[in-house]
Design a protein that fits this description.
disordered N terminus, globular, alpha/beta
């Protein structure tokens, strides 16, 4: 007797839908049964695994995950403000690794939020509140000293808006942070890294302690990529952050202290009057 054939599980199909920021695509992960990547106009934005929200696939999100891990002792709930939502990857990660955390997400693209809410639903018991609107306007509505951690990960057309790059913006971030709070930002740049150097100078003008994490090739200007800037009023756990970043599947480099200031190369801090959006990535980045 021939063996009975089992019905193959049908792979999930991708989803394409117009949202405020362009064409959104949800692409299934071939290696994870309920993993999905979110792309906007072909640019990768987020990856989530609905079965394992603690899993971070993208290197830059893994580095932000390290910041979440090191902001407070393991398991302690955090109050986190996310400027930029995407697929809520970091909010899901925080909820899964730090139960009872209270989180606010500000996302200007309400159509994207509805797509994610419908197709990639999150646990309704998690204390995650999503607000529609501009990130800086949403930041202004957060009570003084509310946040243990503020994460900025905002891109429109693959570029960070100019009004989220200035000392005036960071002054609002500092107002929002609780004593001992931490600020982290996803910055994208390449080539001569002029935008990144100016962002380092801006952060250093507003916070006494800062560091960055990125792929070495990005820091050498050999390719366009993501850099995570971290800042605080108090000392940062640089040694442990460095160890974790170096141990990632795609190892990165951490710069801090005098080396970080030297890397900025004398760049001037950015103000609202001089701010410009981050550079557009080369088309080859997403091929």
């Amino acid at each position: 007797m021939a063996p009975r054939r089992t019905r193959a599980t049908k792979a999930p199909e991708g989803i394409r839908e117009r949202v405020g920021g362009g064409l959104a695509e949800l692409v299934p992960d071939r290696d994870r049964a309920r993993g999905w990547s979110l792309l906007i106009d072909g640019a990768p934005q987020s990856h989530v695994d609905l079965d394992a929200p603690e899993y971070l696939d993208f290197s830059y999100q893994r580095r932000l995950g390290h910041v979440v891990d090191l902001t407070a002792p393991p398991g302690r709930p955090l109050r986190v403000l996310h400027l930029g939502g995407g697929a809520l990857t970091l909010a899901r990660y925080t909820a899964a690794t730090r139960p009872r955390s209270t989180q606010q997400v500000v996302e200007v693209d309400t159509a994207l939020v509805e797509l994610v809410r419908r197709e990639l639903p999150w646990d309704r018991t998690w204390r995650i509140k999503v607000r529609g609107g501009d990130a800086r306007e949403g930041l202004a509505k957060v009570p003084e000293g509310w946040a243990d951690l503020v994460i900025t990960d905002v891109f429109g057309g693959a570029r960070t808006p100019a009004h989220l790059t200035s000392t005036e913006f960071l002054a609002q971030v500092r107002r929002t942070l609780a004593p001992g709070g931490v600020y982290a930002a996803n910055v994208a740049d390449g080539g001569r890294l002029e935008f990144l150097r100016a962002q380092i100078a801006t952060v250093r003008a507003c916070f006494p302690h800062a560091c960055l994490a990125a792929d070495p090739a990005v820091l050498r200007g050999r390719r366009f990529g993501n850099v995570i800037l971290v800042a605080a009023d108090g000392e940062l756990p640089v040694a442990e952050f460095t160890r974790r970043v170096a141990s990632d599947p795609h190892p990165g480099r951490v710069e801090h202290g005098r080396e970080l200031d030297a890397f900025a190369g004398g760049a001037a801090p950015v103000t609202d009057a001089t701010a410009a959006a981050s550079p557009a990535p080369p088309e080859s980045v997403f091929r």
